[in-house]
Amino acid sequence: MTEHNALPDFLLESLVGCLDALLAGCPALPESGPTVNRLRDLAATLRPGGTAPPERPELAAEPLTLAQGLALTETARNTLDTRSALGGDSPWPAETGRALAEALAALAGQLGAARRREQAGMVRGLYVIIDPEVTGGREPLEIAQAAVRGGARMLQLRDKRRDKGDILPLARDLQELCAANDALLIVNDHVDLAAAVGSGGVHVGQTDLPVAQARQVLAPEQVLGRSNREIDLLIESQEMGADHVAFGAIYPTTTKPGGRGPQGPERLRQARAVTQVPLVAIGGINAENVAPVIEAGADAVCVTAAVGLAPEPEAAAHRLVAAISQAGGRI
Q: Domain 123-326 carries which CATH code?
C-alpha cells in the first residue's frame, strides 16, 4: 500500500488560503485592479467546482497595508513555486499555473512600486554616509549610532576597500539600528549585500549595475538611488526607474576628490526643476552652508566628513538637522 504524500495537498490549501487573505484586503491601486480581478478568477479555479471562497469576515476586517499585501503576494508566489517543483500530478492545468505565476508577479511589481513610492517619503532631512575610512579612528557603528541619535533619517553604508563577506556584519548591525529607529539604510554599490540584509535599498553610480538589473536582485519594496553629475543624467536616471537621485558635488569636498568642480546651489536649483523624485544633494555640505542647498530644493542632504570626522558626531548631526529645519527642509 502506497503511503499518501500530504505535502502537495497542504501546499494547495496554503496557497488558496493565502490568495483568499490577499484578495479580501488587497490595497486598492488604480494600476492593480485588472490584476486583482484576474487573480480572483484564477483562485476560483483552484477550488472544487470553481466555488467562491467561504465567508470569512475576519479576513476583510481591515484593508492590508502595502507591506502586508506585498508579503502575502510573495508568500503565494513561493508556495506556488514549491508546489510546482514537487512535480507529479498537478491540481491545475499547466496554463493555469503559468497564468497564476504571471498574475502574482505582476501584482508584486505593482505593490512593490507603490511601496517604494511610500518609502520615498523617508528620503528627507539628514543622510549620513558611514564609511570606515572616514570615522576619525572610531568604529563605524559608533558613528552611525551617534548620527541617528542626532536626527539622521537615512544612513548609507559605503565601504570601497573590504570584501563583502567582511562588510556583512556591519551591514546587519546598521540595518538593525535603522529598523529600530524608523530610519532608512542604503547600501552603496553592493546590490546583493542590500538584498541579503534586507536594507531599505541600494545606491548605485553611473558605472555600477544598471537599474533594471539591480531590480532583479532587490526585493520589490527596496528603493534604488543613483548618482548624477549632469542634468541630462538626472533625467536618464528617472527614466530608468530610480526612486531617488543624488546630485553633486555641491561644494568642494575632500572625501571624493577629482572630477569637475563643485556644482553650487544654483546648479542644484536647475536639477530640482527637472526632477520628479526625491533629490539628494551631496558634497562638501555642513551646518554653515546647508541653507542654500535646502532653499534650492534638496529633499535630503548627504554628508560624510561633516559627521564622520566631527569630534562629537551626535552634536554635529544635531546641528545639521537644526539647520535643515531652520531653512525650511523636512526632517
A: 3.20.20.70
